[in-house]
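Suppose a colleague, Dr. K., hands you the sequence of a protein chain of 204 amino acids and asks what its three-dimensional shape might be. Before reaching for any lab equipment, you can write down a predicted structure in token form. Begin with the sequence itself:
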Amino acid sequence: MSIAEAETKTVTAVPSYWDVVLCAWEELDLPEGWRAEIIEGDIRIMTPPRDEHSEIIDLIQTRLFREKFRDGSPLSECTMHQSIDLRLPERVSLFIPGLVVLPGRVLDRSADHSAADALLVVEVTSKSTAEKDRKAKLWGYAHAGIPLYLLVDRWDPQTGKGEVTLFSEPENGRYTSATKVPFGKEIHLPEPFGVTLDTAEFPA
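The predicted structure, expressed as tokens, is then:
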């Protein structure tokens, strides 16, 4: 064996930063209910959601389920999930949204759990997560090309009150359209959803 051949055999692939952080995330052993996300390369630990968060997610999911099971609904093949991860390796990020709608079974999505698989993501802010929901996740979901991002902001920084914003039409890493309503007003999700959400029961 030549020296060149020996050197070639000893060279091993150097893992990327994303590979290392993802491996560390996968090896976490958190108490039940706790979650961890990767936000632009940093692992963030999140406490279990409060009751208000869970109530809002349940109200939204119940409305979407009603549409899913309507005869002839375009959502009939879609599935909804509260604890799956969406990955954006190009941004060294891994998000676990409050609610994700996929176009089919979760087992049929891409092996890399790409965020681009989602049709809709929903986030409900808490005081500890609000900034990343408003900024890092907004940018990340747009960058992934997710068609709709519904942000339920219980402490909107502009009004100080509960506001719901639907971001849509992602283009070049940003959403080009946004519709905002205060808690108590209705907000419409366009096709393939075609449903109107009543936010009157959202707890502040």
